[in-house]
Known about the structure:
The chain is an alpha+beta fold and 421 residues long. The protein folds into two domains: 44-203, Jelly Rolls (Sandwich); 220-406, Cathepsin B, Chain A (Alpha-Beta Complex), CATH 3.90.70. The chain contains six helices and 21 strands. The protein has helices at 53-56, 247-258, 278-287, 298-309, 320-328, 387-398, and strands at 44-50, 60-62, 64-67, 70-73, 78-82, 85-93, 103-113, 119-128, 131-132, 136-141, 155-158, 161-164, 167-173, 175-185, 193-203, 311-316, 333-339, 352-362, 368-371, 382-385, 401-406. Strands 1, 3, 4, 7, 11, 12, 13 and 15 form an eight-stranded antiparallel β-sheet that branches. Strands 2, 5, 6, 8, 9, 10 and 14 form a seven-stranded antiparallel β-sheet that branches. Keywords: Signal.
Amino acid sequence: MRRSAVVGTALVLALAGTAVCAPADTAGASATTAARGSTGGERQVTLTRWDSTKQWRRGTMAGTTVSAGRLAFDQPVASATAGSRTYDVARWTSQWVEPGYAFTELIASWSARTPKDSWIEVQVRGRGNGERTSWDVLGRWASGDQHLQRSSVSGQSDDGTSVAVDTWRTGGLAGFQLRVRLARRAGASYGPSLDLATAMTSRLPSSAGATSKPGPARGVVLDVPRYSQMVHRGHYPRWGGGGEAWCSPTSTSMVLGYYDRLPAKKRYRWVPKDHTDPWVDHAARMTFDHAYDGTGNWPFNTAYAAPLAGKAFVTRLRSLREAEQLLAAGIPVVISIAFGSGELDGAPIGSSNGHLLVVVGVRANGNVVVNDPAASERRRVRRTYDRGQLERLWLDASGGLAYVITDPAHPLPDPGRASNW
């Protein structure tokens, strides 16, 4: 299994892929049908999070320290050489986590600061039947792109596990450990830090099942601003070229706009003034996965949003009823779907191998109000989709994949018996 920890300036050590949000001949791995653990039964999803001093200290520190709920670089315990630069490295390793079932997929997400040329690398390993897997890299990430080209590392296929862009796939493991490597230029006084790491494990049935009944968000429609990915068609080919490829950063930006947490103007002043919604161009650049060759890497989107909004992570929801719990708390939800011709009535595009949009409300009859960035212009973004169609397309395509982005004024609701936020 691939374990290289050496990352060079502007160097990508991963397999290139194809990223698509709207109509396409091929779909990126982030948009493929989720791995299924059984042909029927319960949708098993668990989110494990580390976001407090107590939780971080349950793990093992190696050159890291924790203060006020933030894990930070303290002193080097290893080094990495990249090009002409040497990096000091510190580590944090979680305790072993067992969700209580044999999980077949894991997606990690994080909220980090990486000042100047510092960066982080997120790794995972598992255990089952008395054996441990080797460590796999889930992502090398920095908030900027001047020194490190953030990238996934697809492949790494051995000992029954593999990485598909942002998703760790297994044959069914009982437990896992997460490890974060924090890297800074040798001798530097600054370093990366994290205030959140999560790991979502799942084992899913082979089909969506019956449509859920309307729940607590019936009649709720959040005032989420409407942005179109299509008005960016042809923008910045090196970051996906806008249009069909930018559904994810456009959706993420709509949620940030709802919270009034878009980046400061100085952050996107490099975008020409005549570009509509220039913060979307900025988001595309700052979520771009240089190995996957697209902006649809799920945790890269939440990692971009988290420092701006407050908290953000990737999870799976079991149904639209769970999404409604978030909507009722004032939290819009970004979801990942795929559909063929005629499968989604009222959609602005005829089909998609992988697409993200924002769920913003529920009509009195239970149908779902969305902001669909695939619309040709802003005024066409707001749509109402049939509940049964949308839920099936979401659960079948991505297993209920969702970005959950919150600000301090909109904390997560009590999950009750749920274990996925």
